[in-house]
Write a structure and sequence with these properties.
The structure is a single chain. By secondary structure, this protein is an alpha/beta fold. Strands 3-2-1-4-5-6 form a six-stranded parallel beta sheet, sandwiched between helices. Helix 1 links the parallel strand 1 and strand 2.
Length: 182
């Protein structure tokens, strides 16, 4: 594989929207494979609700049957917030070209990302559509018609929005968190 899509995020929890993004990426001719890289802790967040090892296990289970999809643990192994540019530099030692997948809802703050000017020289941005968010023409557009938010999902725990293969484990985890907080 030479040209890969880097799909990072908290995946707290993984859901059908993440699956829709991966499936859309696998349809793109310019991409040989998808690297899913869960964050230890998103640089814009202060905590996670599921430990990195759990999120990795759920992702591995969810995408086990997908060809050319890899779960990369580089960021979680660092056990700190890892800027995207650092992950990209790591992957460029293994791959020729990186398509960086971001949600359209992230465009407003994209220029605030650490070393953004350098990042935009090293990757080709691919923006996953999101209802109500415009994708400017200078970005490659990834048409995804599945609007699910991990934040909302943690509150509602809707089984039909979770990966079928590990839905029970995800539901159990977040219900235990909820029970411990009350």
């Amino acid at each position: 594989m030479e040209n890969v899509a880097l799909f990072g995020g908290s995946f707290d929890p993984p859901h059908i929207g993440h699956i829709a993004v991966v499936e859309a990426l696998l349809q793109r001719n310019e991409i040989d494979g998808v690297i899913i890289m869960p964050a230890y802790l998103n640089p814009f967040k202060i905590k996670v609700f599921a430990d990195a090892s759990l999120r990795i296990a759920w992702l591995k289970e969810t995408f086990a049957s997908y060809k050319n999809v890899m779960i990369e643990t580089y960021e979680t192994e660092q056990q700190r917030k890892v800027p995207t540019i650092e992950s990209v530099e790591y992957l460029l030692t293994k791959f020729k070209k990186i398509y960086l997948v971001i949600g359209a809802d992230n465009l407003a703050k994209l220029e605030e990302w650490y070393r953004y000017d350098e990042l935009k020289k090293r990757v080709t941005f691919m923006v996953a559509t999101r209802e109500g968010c415009h994708v400017p023409q200078e970005f490659l557009k990834l048409d995804v018609r599945c609007s699910v938010s991990s934040t909302e999902l943690r509150e509602t725990i809707e089984r039909q929005k979770l990966p079928k293969i590990c839905a029970d484990k995800i539901i159990k985890h977040y219900k235990e968190i909820d029970a411990n907080q009350n």
